[in-house]
Specification:
Shape: globular
Low-confidence stretches: 1-6
Order of helices and strands: HHEHEHEEHEHHHEE
Number of strands: 7
Number of domains: 1
Bound molecules: S-adenosylmethionine
Length: about 250
């Protein structure tokens, strides 16, 4: 796979994560496979019996989850990523029924075109300051009653910047420690880089539960219809990996 250090100008994740290593190990991130399985189940149940459906996947990266969505029948997937290196890898994988574009999830819009908008470990790559614009744009892309499915990492509650730092350490040290204990050193390294990116607000803007839920519903455009935590159950104070489903009103 070519993670392409070529002359590209639109970069995001590849500024601070080695894409080849990411692609090789990210599925072994705790609860990742279960989370994607849950999203696939939710999507297939929601369009069961319909002739077909369109999905907009935002922040598709190298296509780890896209690959699983593409196995569903009669689905057309538009997978966007604003990082050209990610988009080039994803494009090169030639997944069936998947159109790939280099585009920004806060602005890319085909009005009322999609049955589903999905993000996997990507919602929190959007800066807090762009949240309102981002949520409004998700809504614009969706058909009436369309669904936004978010699989992602959520921090324990924080209020101040200092508490945010502690929340980031609590979540990431749990994940890094788990990876180290499994001798999954490459995943541990990826997670350390993600922690650094979060601490320095480079490209990782994790939310806590209340913050995320308010961000999605305050504008009155979405109703939360599902929330599950894939793990960890213990400890219960480090945040975790969640699946949320919101319906466009
Ligand atoms: C942690 S990766 C997740 C990739 C993939 N969904 C997966 O499950 O492995 C987050 C992705 O979001 C992309 N991204 C960040 N900001 C974006 C934006 N504004 N619009 C589109 N993609 C963005 C990054 O380039 C990166 O590929």
């Amino acid at each position: 796979m070519n993670s392409g250090k070529n002359d590209v100008t639109n970069l995001e994740m590849s500024r601070y994560i080695n894409l080849d290593i990411y692609h090789a190990v990210e599925r072994s991130h705790p609860y990742y496979v279960e989370m994607v399985g849950e999203l696939v189940k939710d999507i297939s149940e929601a369009y069961e019996g319909k002739g077909g459906a369109r999905i907009l996947e935002i922040g598709a990266g190298t296509g780890l989850a896209t690959e699983d969505f593409a196995k569903l029948e009669k689905l057309e997937i538009t997978a966007i990523d604003m990082d050209e290196n990610c988009k080039n890898i994803l494009h090169g994988r030639n997944l069936d029924g998947v159109e790939t574009l280099c585009a920004d999830a806060t602005t890319y819009c085909e009005p009322n075109a999609f049955d589903f908008v999905v993000s996997v470990f990507a919602h929190d790559h959007i800066h807090y300051d762009s949240a309102e614009k981002f949520v409004a744009n998700i809504h614009k892309n969706l058909k009436p009653n369309g669904l936004y499915l978010m699989g992602g990492e959520v921090l324990p509650y924080y209020d101040t910047l200092d508490e945010r730092t502690e929340a980031l350490y609590a979540y990431h040290t749990f994940i890094v420690n788990k990876a180290l204990r499994e001798e999954n050193f490459e995943l541990a390294q990826i997670e350390i880089n993600a922690l650094k990116s979060g601490l320095h607000m480079i490209g990782d803007f994790k939310r806590h539960e209340t913050m995320f839920e308010e961000e999605m519903t305050l504008g009155g455009n979405f109703e939360m219809i599902k929330k599950i935590k894939l793990g960890p159950d213990v400890p219960d104070d480090v945040g975790g990996v969640f699946v949320y489903v919101f319906k466009a009103i």
